[in-house]
Amino acid sequence: METAPGPAYGPVAPPKVHGQDEQSLGRVVAMLSRVRVFSLISISAVAIWKFAEFIGLQDKLSPSAIFELLFFSIIAPMFVWFITMAALKLAGCAREGSRRYVEHYKVAQEEIEEKRKVVPALTDTAKLYEILYMEAPHSYFCATPQGELQTANKSAEQLLGRPINEFIGTHVFDLYADTPDGKPKIKKLRAKIQEGILVSNEELQMQRADGSTVWVELSVHPVFGANGELISSLGMAIDISERKKAEAEQQRLISELRGALA
């Protein structure tokens, strides 16, 4: 008759202790250690007392002498032991504190070194963007929400025939011609920009320093702050004067052709 195999016996792993159970176990161990120390003191005191009785010192010595005997043979060494353990514990705490301080110091130094590496990179990136902005083939203008010009690039200088320092502090309206496609149109577009609306591919007439006009295709991107408020606007103007001349010439030829065929 076959029997079912029984359970396999072997070493059983102790249960794992986590969280509050681990803390409770630690308190129990500490309490047992204190009980053991006081038990040793009590046993030692009883042993010395019995030894004194055995050799007859109990009758020969006064109570104060017996107390001194117990003190110097048990209590004083135990007091020294407690002081030594406390000193060792404090030394351990000091070593642990020093170790953690060194670790935190190393981490702080590493973070500082990383930031030192990042700052030049950010500086180089900012310089790169500044170069790209200043050397861009199209004209760029940056203005406040009120329309006061803050910066412009070299293409803007060439477009309007004026140096950059003459732009700074002036109003954007001053850059446009006194024509229907100049100041009146930019005023309508500025109202949209102040509302945070993107302006794209609008054809306007700007005025050059010599009084002549130039056709541009204007796009303006509103720039918002962390709280969603309008902090500036970045405008890009592309010179389309040649295209407008070609369109005007095309219209002239079409008109002549229609007149000839009429």
Descriptive overview:
With about 260 residues, this protein is an alpha+beta fold. Helix content is about 60%, strand content about 15%. The chain is built from 6 helices and 5 strands. Strands 2-1-5-4-3 form a 5-stranded antiparallel beta sheet, with helices on both faces. It is rod-shaped and about 145 Å long. The model is unreliable at about 1-20 (pLDDT under 50).
Characteristic key phrases:
single chain; 6 helices; 5 strands; disordered N terminus; 262 residues; 58% helix; alpha+beta
The overall strand count is 5
Largest sheet, order of strands side by side? 2-1-5-4-3
Strand content: 15-25%
Succession of helices and strands: HHHEEHHEEEH
User: How would you describe the oligomerization state of the chains in this entry?
Assistant: single chain
Overall pLDDT confidence: 75
What's the total helix number? 6
CA(first)-CA(last) distance: 122 Å
Spatial shape: rod-shaped
Radius of gyration: 46 Å
Uncertain segments are 1-19
- Biggest pleated sheet: 5 strands, antiparallel
Q: What percent of residues adopt helix (DSSP H or I)?
A: 55-70%
**Structural class label:** alpha+beta
Topology of helices and strands:
Layout: H1 19-55, H2 57-60, H3 63-134, E1 139-143, E2 149-152, H4 154-160, H5 183-194, E3 199-207, E4 213-224, E5 230-239, H6 241-261
Antiparallel strand pairs: 1-2, 1-5, 3-4, 4-5
Helix pairs in contact: 1-3
